[in-house]
Amino acid sequence: MHTYSLLEKLLFWPAVLDEKRLARSLAGKTILITGASSGIGEQLAYLLGRCEVQLLLVARREEKLRQLKREIEQHGTAAVSVFGADLREPLELESFLAWVCEQADTINIVVSNAGLSIRRSIMDSLDRHHDFTRTMAINYFAPVRLLLSLLPQLARSNGQIIHISTINTSLVPLPYWAAYQASKAAFDTWFRSAAPEWNARGIATTAIYFPLVKTPMIAPTAAYRSMPAMSAEHAARVIAKSMCTRRKSWRPWWLLFGELASVLGRGLLERLTPRWLRKKGG
Questions:
Q1: Is the pLDDT of residue 282 over 80?
Q2: Over pLDDT 70: what percentage of the chain?
Q3: Most buried by CB count within 10 Å: which residue of 83, 220, 223, 273?
Q4: Can you say whether the dihedral through the CA atoms of 212, 145, 90, 66 is positive or negative?
Q5: Overall average pLDDT of the 181-199 stretch
Q6: Which has the closest alpha carbon to 174: 249, 272, 66?
Q7: Torsion (CA) 231, 235, 240, 243 in degrees, nearest 10
Q8: Active site residue 140
Q9: Which terms are listed as keywords in the entry (predicted)?
Q10: From CA 122, how far away is CA 143, in angstroms rounded?
């Protein structure tokens, strides 16, 4: 459990969650979570595991999923089914989709959480085209394919799609994050473009724009270790609460100021950043 500093308490206001209300609203529903073996997805599975729901969990690490299933079924009330797959691989993605159809006739909620982050200079990526294809594969193409497949079920159940995004899609793009930011922005734009069509058919859509979250995905980036970060447990409560409220979006209270700064200060930032990079390189 990540203990918040005073600054983090100011940045990340508590997500007040009525777990009894959550249990009542979700009773009997089938919930699919991608990227469920660690971080936000894992904590969400533990939280929902205390409700009478059917959880369908997918991630690359099948053994970790099986451990998660054992723990939830030992201490919780949810029925849990797991599938190990790398959703970047088309054949594994198709096998997973076939498995989902076998597990449940109706999907009520999809939490599109699986993702990949890469921090690397463009000049260090000249022979690493796969950095861009693999981030697009998991952050864009896989969730698009997943949702296209499940939309008929979601429409029948008046279901909900919860898209786990990032504040970066609302801010000025930063150096070293081209692969990650482009792939996240691609799916976010696709999701917001498609949402009105889904809403017209009774499907609720929720986009959650998280700040930095303390998960294994950010561990390789040394600069993040001293930066304020939301806990994965806190993020899970935000997602769970959105299942009760079915609100359109969630974002940290301070993101508006970041968006204004991105618009008003874009020209200045674009002039100063190359100077900073040259100085750093020197």
A1: no
A2: 99
A3: 83
A4: positive
A5: 98
A6: 272
A7: 170
A8: no
A9: Oxidoreductase
A10: 26
**Rounded-to-integer distance, Cα 165 and Cα 201, Å:** 23
* Model confidence pLDDT, tens digit, residues 71-130: 999 999 999 999 999 999 999 999 999 999 999 989 999 999 999 999 999 999 999 999
Using a 10 angstrom Cβ sphere, with 0-12 exposed, 13-18 middle and 19 or more buried, the burial of residue 149 is: middle
Please state, in angstroms and as integers, the Cα–Cα distance from residue 80 to each residue in 53, 237, 244, following that order: 8, 19, 21
Q: Write down the domain spans for the chain.
A: 6-251, 258-282
Tens digit of each residue's pLDDT (9 = 90 or more) over 39-53: 999 999 999 999 999
Name the token pair of 175: 């150096």
Q: What confidence score (pLDDT) does residue 1 get? A: 66
Homologous superfamily in CATH for domain 6-251: NAD(P)-binding Rossmann-like Domain (3.40.50.720)
The single residue of 4, 46, 176, 180 carrying the catalytic annotation is: 180
Q: ∠ at Cα 88 (173, 57), nearest 5°?
A: 105
Give the whole-angstrom CA distance, residue 37 versus residue 45.
9
Number of H helices, E strands in the chain: 11, 9
Of 107, 91, 199, 197, nearest in space to 149 by CA: 107
